[in-house]
């Protein structure tokens, strides 16, 4: 039951954080681009729960859920949204460029597929150093149409790199339906053609995601080479806050909402898990989010005198 509670708490944290970000964006307290993770929480919670502290995570521009699940403090993530110096990227990255080396979280990448070669590089470094670590690389199904997808999977398989490729197939690359972008729709099968162990997972079922991530990481740690999980999920909100969302039918969204990963886990936990316990989790998360917002509002912007800092390394060679 504790394992279930931990997964539920993490999904609720991500969901409520994203909903608050939507409110803050609408009131112009958060600016720039904002891509929300609502509906996909089972993927981040399930996969990251199977990683060790020294493993690495590489994310996409829809990165808030991954960062929170990885343990990046919510205060630091929210401050980054506000562009404040206390943010995990000192306010320089914003929503799409969360980064926290201390938690082994290496972006936040705005370019579609941009995290794939980064993940391969991290994994190769671990191999050369003799470090038994896994690199979890999250990316959307739209990245499977990019050249680096094929190049990186080929090299990862050839060099047996310890990468867990996590394809979050939410059916739409921005506004382009998956079926209109890919002639062959089975991404797990495509990955297996490069020699990777790969399979599809119900990405709306956090327990199925966790079990698949456990199986994959055990194989990678045992020297079995890279694995790919095609996590079939769905985002309940538009691609970004700028998106008028005219490319999908509202009835489709409603059908997928009936597969809400939070609701599904709560039902699995019944009757041992009560509404009062769920209310306690919600209250705990609400306090955490309120604190994150308050500290972000009170934090300072980076001083103008520091704007050229970090352009070159401060470490002498």
Protein model, in words:
The protein has 317 residues and is of the alpha/beta class. The protein has a single domain (2-302), classed as Rossmann fold. 45% of the residues lie in helices and 10% in strands. The chain is built from 12 helices and 7 strands. The strands form 2 sheets. It has a 5-stranded parallel sheet with strand order 1-2-3-7-6, with helices on both faces. It has a two-stranded antiparallel ribbon with strand order 4-5. Strand 4 and strand 5 (176-177) form a beta hairpin. Helix 2 (41-48) runs parallel beside helix 9. The longest helix has 25 residues, at 2-26. The protein is globular, with a radius of gyration of 19 Å. The mean pLDDT is 95. One of its GO terms (molecular function) is pyruvate dehydrogenase (acetyl-transferring) activity. This is Pyruvate dehydrogenase E1 component subunit alpha. It is an enzyme of class 1 (oxidoreductase). It comes from Lentzea rhizosphaerae. Residues 10-300 form the Dehydrogenase E1 component domain.
Task: List strands and helices in order, with pairings.
Blueprint: H1 2-26, H2 41-48, E1 56-58, H3 64-70, H4 74-81, H5 115-129, E2 135-140, H6 147-159, E3 163-169, E4 172-173, E5 176-177, H7 178-181, H8 187-192, E6 197-202, H9 206-221, E7 227-232, H10 250-257, H11 261-269, H12 275-298
Parallel strand pairs: 1-2, 2-3, 3-7, 6-7
Antiparallel strand pairs: 4-5
Per the CATH scheme, the topology name is Rossmann fold
Report strand %.
5-15%
Q: Tell me the overall shape.
A: globular
Q: Which H/E pattern describes the elements?
A: HHEHHHEHEEEHHEHEHHH
Q: What is the number of E strands?
A: 7
Discrete helix count? 12
> Mind describing the biggest β-sheet?
5 strands, parallel
Strand order of the largest sheet: 1-2-3-7-6
What structural class is derived from the secondary structure elements?
alpha/beta
In CATH, what is the class? Answer: Alpha Beta
How far is the first residue's CA from the last residue's CA?
51 Å
Low-confidence stretches are none
Mean pLDDT: 95
Count of spatially separate domains: 1
Please give the CATH architecture.
Answer: 3-Layer(aba) Sandwich
CATH superfamily: Thiamin diphosphate (ThDP)-binding fold, Pyr/PP domains
Radius of gyration, CA atoms, in whole angstroms: 19 Å
User: Helical residue percent?
Assistant: 40-55%
């Amino acid at each position: 039951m504790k394992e279930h509670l931990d997964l539920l708490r993490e999904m609720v944290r991500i969901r409520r954080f994203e909903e608050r970000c939507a409110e803050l964006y609408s009131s112009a307290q958060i600016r720039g681009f904002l891509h929300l993770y609502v509906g996909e929480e089972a993927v981040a919670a399930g996969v990251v729960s199977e990683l060790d502290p020294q493993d690495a995570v590489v994310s996409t521009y829809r990165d808030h859920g991954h960062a929170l699940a990885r343990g990046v403090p919510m205060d630091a993530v929210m401050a980054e949204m506000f562009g404040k110096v206390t943010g995990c990227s000192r306010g320089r990255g914003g929503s799409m460029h969360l980064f926290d080396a201390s938690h082994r979280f290496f972006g936040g990448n705005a370019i579609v597929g941009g995290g794939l070669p980064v993940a391969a590089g991290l994994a190769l470094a671990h191999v050369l150093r003799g470090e038994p670590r896994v690199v979890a690389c999250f990316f959307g199904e739209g990245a499977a149409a990019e050249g680096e997808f094929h190049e990186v999977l080929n090299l990862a398989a050839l060099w047996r790199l310890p990468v867990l490729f996590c394809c979050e197939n939410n059916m739409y690359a921005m506004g382009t339906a998956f079926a209109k972008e890919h002639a062959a729709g089975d991404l797990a099968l495509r990955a297996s053609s490069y020699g990777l162990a790969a399979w599809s997972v119900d990405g709306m079922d956090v327990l199925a995601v966790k079990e698949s991530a456990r199986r994959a990481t055990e194989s990678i740690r045992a020297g079995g080479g890279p694995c790919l999980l095609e996590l079939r999920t769905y985002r309940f909100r538009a691609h970004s806050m700028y998106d008028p969302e005219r490319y999908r039918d509202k009835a489709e969204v409603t059908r997928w909402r009936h597969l809400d990963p939070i609701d599904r886990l709560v039902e699995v936990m019944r009757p041992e898990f009560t509404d009062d316990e769920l209310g306690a989790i919600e209250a705990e998360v609400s306090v955490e989010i309120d604190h994150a917002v308050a500290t972000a509002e009170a934090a300072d912007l980076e001083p103008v005198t520091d704007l050229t800092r970090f352009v070159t390394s401060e470490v002498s060679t």
